[in-house]
Amino acid sequence: MTGSNEYKLNQGPEDSISAVKFSPSTAQFLLVSSWDSTVRLYDVGGNSMRMKYQHSAPVLDCAFYDPTHSWSGGLDTQLKTHDLNTDQDTIVGTHDAPIRCVEYCPEVNVMVTGSWDRSVRLWDPRTPCNAGTFSQPEKVYTLSVAGDRVIVGTAGRRVLVWDLRNMGYVQQRRESSLKYQTRCIRAFPNKQGYVLSSIEGRVAVEYLDPSQEVQKKKYAFKCHRLKENGIEQVYPVNAISFHSVHNTFATGGSDGFVNIWDPFNKKRLCQFHRYPTSIASLAFSNDGSTLAIASSYMQEQGDISHPEDAIFIRQVTDAETKPK
Amino acid sequence: MAEGGDADWELCKENIQPLKGGRAIAALNQALSLQEGFSSATNQHKQAFESELRLYEGDDPLDVWDRYVKWTEQTFPQGGKESNLSVLLERAVMRFTKENKYHNDVRYVDLWIKFAENCPEPLDVYRYMQAQGIGTMQASFYIAWSEEYEKQANYHKADTVFQEGFRCHAEPLEKLKQFHKGLQARVSRQVMTGMLEEDEEDAARVKEQERMSLVDLKHRGKKKAVAPINRVGAALSGKSSGLSSQGEAAAGSGSNTRFRVFDENRAVSAAPAEPRLESWMAPPTSRAKENEQRPEKWSSIKMPQRSRFGHVVVAPPSEPNFQPFVEESDQPPAMTPCKINPAVNSVLSARKPCREETPLKRLQEHSQQQASGGASSGASGGAQSGASSGAQEQSMYCKELLLSGASEFCFEELRAERYRQRVSAEPSGREG
């Protein structure tokens, strides 16, 4: 049951939600991409949809370049940028296969996209134009920016770390320490490491520094599992988002739960009520005051009927997100 | 077709693996013209096949696998890991072991034969097939099996296989007869050349001298042992080691008997255990042990080492006389490779999979699991029982669908494929 600190967004997308992202400068605006082929901008405070633009096929990810420009890509393989002031589209470029991830790197001022065509492409947001294509060993499933580096998670449980200022070679090649497919990777705000979640109820905390002493600190834990009749039901962990101030992170799984974790003390801080269906995406606002929760069935168990997809906005408290 | 003088394939003939049935020249040229062997078109095509595998709902799923395998062979002439062919074959073969309707389908049998040729011990695979009743009505099965025996110079067994084929009335009968005649012709030719070589022993040694490889050589010269330049005939110290042409072998083996009678009752040395016709469930142990040496101390020679200060440092003793204490926390968390899914296990990982594990063993384990666990492979939703940990963990997602092809899929890819199919089915909503 939603309390007074949580409400559902009106005029939500008409199909599953693929990603939610807050504006970099304010907790007021939220960008939402969906399988109904639209990208929508919401005024979170006023609970209304401000703008909507179309792709020709479902959109898999979106990101803010700056508070007035959104970038998005999906199954139509086109990377689009949309000016939120003038409500104008521009097609920046394409991949050879659907675009799975779109992120912005402020330190290097470049947009990064990852696709199932096994490449990561960089884009200069000012012109805008392509700034390079870099092949990955496998299809890209997730990526996250950490300072001037980007961490790419691909099929085959591989993880690659690239230095965005020097894309001539891969800085680090790793294998996920989890046994199953990688669902999501998010970098720590302090850029020291990243969190990786898998399709079978596990999350790993990893560090970027390759030295032995630092690598010893890495660990993994089980989560998003439910016990029913003596059988442990294992759910995919689809979403991760970091609280920018406290360096704690939230995970969302197909069990419909959102958990908040303290990675340094290795404790769970909080678990919210169960949402109607799988959590597809999570986003903390830049000041850490608000958490957007996309409760949206992802067809993990086939194309069956499911509760309605919705986006919940929750005002989070220190008690829920601050390490104790 | 752009022929005119641009036969690029001529330049890389050695890199092209031969295919029975030949290669389509257009596909070959295209594959060779790609620098990295990977193009986006290839990837897209592969993805399309993978999607089709997962979402196929018709009566003949074997057709998709069959086309996928054939496309893979044509598109990746060099073979190799990128093609994923061995994984694909293994998957295809495993997928239908329980489907009796396919057991004698010529396409399925061909897949098995390709799979067998990829395995370290094809004979074991053929015996397994026979025990399971796969291909026993197909001539191609017996032909491939006997070819394998022939490669091992086991002509007796090779003939037995054909006899078995005739007994089972394998089809097409004419083809079986034709290949059997071919075998007989080859065998008798060998016998004839063996006979001739015996007669012209000395003459042959002098005239037709074939250079023998890997043979010990008699040395010339009194003080220093100098290897002769001509490594033929009299220069050889003996014929015990080294490779020799087949003619020599035939001549050498039976020096007393001039005429090698085709005796069915005589057991030939190279044969492994008699083919058992009862159900054959024991996993074959890996027999290719000649090339695997246990690591041993290399030699007893010790090199005197000079440290920086000019002292001679003795090499440390090889075995410590105490058991070093290993703290548990020192063990780094295991980078466990995913043993469940061979397709995913293509990444270099800290732990290597067990060497004894062959594709055939995996297949047998898989079919045993299927028989005992009764795991259903429903395509539409529902929780699937985790076969690995004894029904204590249940994966709440369509695991089989994600992993059923030769490469993995994520939820979004699967859903994207459903979307694409839905869109192409609606004429009004068709995209450009």
UniProtKB/TrEMBL annotation, chain A:
<keyword id="KW-0469">Meiosis</keyword>
<feature type="repeat" description="WD">
    <location>
        <begin position="10"/>
        <end position="52"/>
    </location>
</feature>
<dbReference type="Pfam" id="PF00400">
    <property type="entry name" value="WD40"/>
</dbReference>
<keyword id="KW-0159">Chromosome partition</keyword>
<keyword id="KW-0498">Mitosis</keyword>
<feature type="repeat" description="WD">
    <location>
        <begin position="237"/>
        <end position="262"/>
    </location>
</feature>
<dbReference type="GO" id="GO:0007059">
    <property type="term" value="P:chromosome segregation"/>
</dbReference>
<feature type="repeat" description="WD">
    <location>
        <begin position="92"/>
        <end position="124"/>
    </location>
</feature>
<protein>
    <recommendedName>
        <fullName>Mitotic checkpoint protein BUB3</fullName>
    </recommendedName>
</protein>
<keyword id="KW-0137">Centromere</keyword>
<dbReference type="InterPro" id="IPR036322">
    <property type="entry name" value="WD40_repeat_dom_sf"/>
</dbReference>
<keyword id="KW-0158">Chromosome</keyword>
<dbReference type="InterPro" id="IPR001680">
    <property type="entry name" value="WD40_rpt"/>
</dbReference>
<dbReference type="GO" id="GO:0000776">
    <property type="term" value="C:kinetochore"/>
</dbReference>
<keyword id="KW-0539">Nucleus</keyword>
<dbReference type="InterPro" id="IPR015943">
    <property type="entry name" value="WD40/YVTN_repeat-like_dom_sf"/>
</dbReference>
<dbReference type="GO" id="GO:0051301">
    <property type="term" value="P:cell division"/>
</dbReference>
<comment type="similarity">
    <text>Belongs to the WD repeat BUB3 family.</text>
</comment>
<dbReference type="GO" id="GO:0005634">
    <property type="term" value="C:nucleus"/>
</dbReference>
<keyword id="KW-0853">WD repeat</keyword>
<keyword id="KW-0132">Cell division</keyword>
<dbReference type="InterPro" id="IPR020472">
    <property type="entry name" value="WD40_PAC1"/>
</dbReference>
<keyword id="KW-0677">Repeat</keyword>
<keyword id="KW-0131">Cell cycle</keyword>
<dbReference type="GO" id="GO:0051321">
    <property type="term" value="P:meiotic cell cycle"/>
</dbReference>
<keyword id="KW-0995">Kinetochore</keyword>
